Structure formats: structure tokens, C-alpha cells
Amino acid sequence: MAGILDSFKLEGKLAIVTGSERGLGQAYAVALAQAGADILGVTYADEADETAAAVKSAGRRYVHLKANLMSLEPIPGIVAIALKEFGRIDILVNNAGTILRNDAVSFTEREWDDVMNLNLKTVFFLSQAVAKVMIDKGRGGKIVNVASMLSFQGGIRVPSYTASKSGIKGITMSMANEWAKNGIQVNAVAPGYIETMNTAPIRADEGRMNSITERIPAGRWGVPADVAGAVVFLASPASDYVNGYTLAVDGGWLAR
């Protein structure tokens, strides 16, 4: 009988990770590789050398694809490259995202659309394209979306981000409902306050950073590696009976 740790192994799997060049996306890609998966990294950046090196040091293959996910145009190419290079798609991690801050009374249509297009619209249609492959191949698969504390809360000065991450929680449940019969599990992680580029403006405000830290039961901000284990779990056979769930990795923030 296989041991429990065997159910976390991803040998022979291909994981697409968007936004894999830094921060959380890099941590996800490297952790998945350490669990045994090859990685197709999709980034807006021209390269992701640091991520590629870490994946290769784990003994796995890394293929980089530059794409602007603000539109749906790159999606067919992402799927085509995955199938050409690896012949399969087993895991999709929808990590790429953006955040724009402005008072709600001053928020512009452009600020709204730019966030919603990348954070929600592309996530849905890339998931749809990948699910079609998974269904066609008949092997099922795992889709892991990246939600947020603002999937549960309102936030301040980030109306489009809050809307997009609330939407992620909703479409995660919706897609899970429809695709479970095809052996596809769709779940999400909701990182709490993590030290990344997106939270740099908050951390630069010492008063606000301290007030947030005091409210986190863990007594500290998270780092990308804190979330990586949850992504590996949701991408692995260990989570085969978990579907449509948004898992908070927040140091206890929501429990406060």
C-alpha cells in the first residue's frame, strides 16, 4: 500500500503556472517541481531565469512562455505549447494578477477593466481551455485559482480587486460543480498578507503595516513559501475529494 506522502507526488505531471517569474507564482512553480512536476511558466516578463534555475535544480523541466494575459488572445497558444512540449496538461495554477488602488468615488473604467480582465476573465477562459484538454484526454486534472482575503472581505481602495477575487471564489465553485464528473478538481488558495510586490505599498506605510501585523494571530506577515504547500496539496492526488473550496492561508486572519 502506498504511503500518504506518495499521494502528494507529481511525477509525470505537467503544471502550467501563470505569473511564475517572482513572488507567489515562483514559489508555486518551484514547489510543484520539487513534488515532481514539469513546469510551463507563463509570464508577462521576457524571462524567468531564477524560476527556471530553481525548477531545473529540482530535476524537472521548465519551459517559459511570454504572454500578455490582459487579453484572451494568448490562451490557444498556451494550450498548444503545453501539448507540443509535454503532450499533456495535468495542473493549472492561475496565479497571474494585478491590483490598482484608488478611492471608490474616483475609480475609473480603465482601472476596473484592467484588473477584472486579468484577474477574472482570463482565469475563467484559460481554465475553460485547459479543462477541454483534460476532458478530451480523459485523465482529469487539477485547477488551482488564487483568491485572496478580499474574496471574503471588502478591502479599502481596491474595488476592482475585491470584485475580481470575490469572483474567483464564485467561479471556483461553479467550475467545480460542472467538471467534477470529468475528474477535474477546481479549488483556490486565498493568501493572507504576504510579503510580495503587490503588498509593497502597504508595507511601506509603517503604521498600517504594524496595525495589520498586530491583527494576525500568527504575529507576522507570510512569505510565498507559506502558501506553496497548500498549492501542492490542491494540485496533488491528496486532494482528490476536495472540490470547489477556497483555502485561506492567512496566519489566522479570518479567524480573528
Radius of gyration over C-alpha positions, nearest whole angstrom:
18 Å
Q: How many beta-strand runs?
A: 7
Based on Cα principal axes, name the global outline. Answer: globular
What is the helix content? 40-55%
Oligomer, anyone? single chain
Provide the spatial order of strands within the biggest beta sheet. Answer: 3-2-1-4-5-6-7
Describe, in plain words, how this protein is organized in 3D.
The chain starts with 13 loop residues before the first strand and ends in a 7-residue tail after the last strand. With 256 residues, it is α/β, with parallel strands linked by helices. α1 crosses α8 (224-235). A seven-stranded parallel beta sheet has the order 3-2-1-4-5-6-7, with helices on both faces. The protein is built from eight helices and seven strands, in the order βαβαβαβαβαβαααβ. It has a single domain (4-196, 224-245), classed as NAD(P)-binding Rossmann-like Domain (Rossmann fold, 3-Layer(aba) Sandwich), CATH 3.40.50.720. It is 43% helix and 15% strand. The chain is globular. The longest helix is centred in the middle third of the chain and has 29 residues, at 109-137.
